[in-house]
Amino acid sequence: MRIAHLIDSLYWGGAQRLLVTFAAAARARNLRPTIISLRSKEQTPIPGELTTLGAEVRGFPGSGSLDLVRLWGLARFLRRERFDVLHTHLSYSHVVGALVGPLAGVPVVSTQYNSHTDLRLYHPVRYHFATWALRHAARRVFAVGYAVAESNRERLRGKPLDVVLNAVQPAPVLSPAERLASRGEMTGDPTRPLLISVGRLEPAKGYGDVLTAFAEVRRTRPTAALVIVGEGSMRAALAEQISALNLIGHAILLGARNDVPRLLASSDVFLSASHWDGLPVAILEAMAAGLPVVATEVGDVPRVVSPDTGVVLPPQNPTRLSAALRDLLNNPSRMRTLGAAGQAYVTHRHSPAAWLDQLLSLYATVISSEKESLQPLSVVH
């Protein structure tokens, strides 16, 4: 089966991490997916990881969703390479995929990742084009969680959505010496209690709340350290907040990293303060690493983080967040119990092999039922 994934960028985020998981699972089945980014020359670890896992990475930059040169070139590429299915991720890719798929004679499927639209990033024309694409051009629409599916039903006017829960790769097993070395690299002192948060540095992720809560934690646990892994538009603002809260040397912005599983396996507690979300890959990765999770009650998080695996709190409440973190840090045995239960849950429910099986089955259904009716236009050569 020839599979192409189309995504807005390979910059940083949960959708991009899932493509890495897909490439790893596909390699075990002797499949070589093609990952197509609508940008090029991206200075992130993601393209290198994908290439190392055997995926082909291609860039098709353009001046906008309706760039005719890009649309024409991408359609010709898809037809020439004889792909069986085109899987789109994120808004721009939904639109571009809806236009080039029929031109190339390739059926299109799409994934929805969020249960909420970020009004700061909302663009009405793009949103309505993406909605049209999901309703009319995508042969199947996948939701990464049940809450995501429910929140998108009205937008898609009742079109059926297949729930395909995010998957996560097993965490690396570190020796005690490797774990200490990694902790020392992050904070300079491997003995400090270490909190970690991973994700795009964007308003929806609530990192301002994370820092506020951490400042409160340090009132009673002054040796605690926090590392934030990721990049985004809020980096400068977060650096200013770290300075204002006197957290320099205690709260550390690590930037984008290609060793997130190792960093998680070296830490003590994972926290997520998202104001809205779907099913964050970072939370699943943290659970796979055996970390107890403190997270906000958004999207499908409550379906994954139960009282047996962590603590779920209302969003935008740094006071309760800090209290939950202090309670965990003061109870190491509970931390270990929660972490072990979370690791067992993710291993059983979110394995890459089962996830890939579900996707391949859905792809096959689309190909068998739709490809005959999707004849390529003769103008594309």
Q: Could you give the order of the helices and strands?
A: EHEHEHEHEHEHEHEHEHEHEHEHEHHH
Write down the overall mean pLDDT.
Answer: 91
Number of domains: 2
Unreliable runs: none
Per CATH, the architecture of the largest domain is: 3-Layer(aba) Sandwich
* Fraction in beta strands: 5-15%
Helix tally equals 15
From the alpha carbons, calculate the radius of gyration and give it in angstroms.
Answer: 21 Å
Strand tally is 13
Structural category is alpha/beta
CATH class of the largest domain: Alpha Beta
Assembly classification: single chain
Strand order, main sheet: write it out.
3-2-1-4-5-6-7
Ends: how far apart?
22 Å
- Give the CATH superfamily of the largest domain: Glycogen Phosphorylase B
General shape? globular
**Strand count, sense and closure of the main sheet?**
7 strands, parallel
- Tell me the CATH topology of the largest domain: Rossmann fold
How helical, in percent, are the residues?
Answer: 40-55%
How would you characterize the overall build of this protein?
By secondary structure, this protein is of the alpha/beta class. It folds into two domains: 3-167 and 351-373, Rossmann fold; 176-349, Glycogen Phosphorylase B (Rossmann fold), CATH 3.40.50. 45% of the residues lie in helices and 15% in strands. The protein contains 15 helices and 13 strands. It has helices at residues 14-28, 46-52, 68-80, 91-104, 124-137, 146-152, 176-187, 207-220, 235-244, 260-265, 281-288, 301-304, 318-329, 332-349, 352-370, and strands at 3-7, 34-37, 56-59, 85-89, 108-112, 140-143, 161-163, 194-198, 225-229, 251-255, 269-272, 293-296, 310-313. The strands form two sheets. Strands 3-2-1-4-5-6-7 form a seven-stranded parallel beta sheet, sandwiched between helices. Helix 8 (207-220) packs across helix 13. The mean pLDDT is 91.
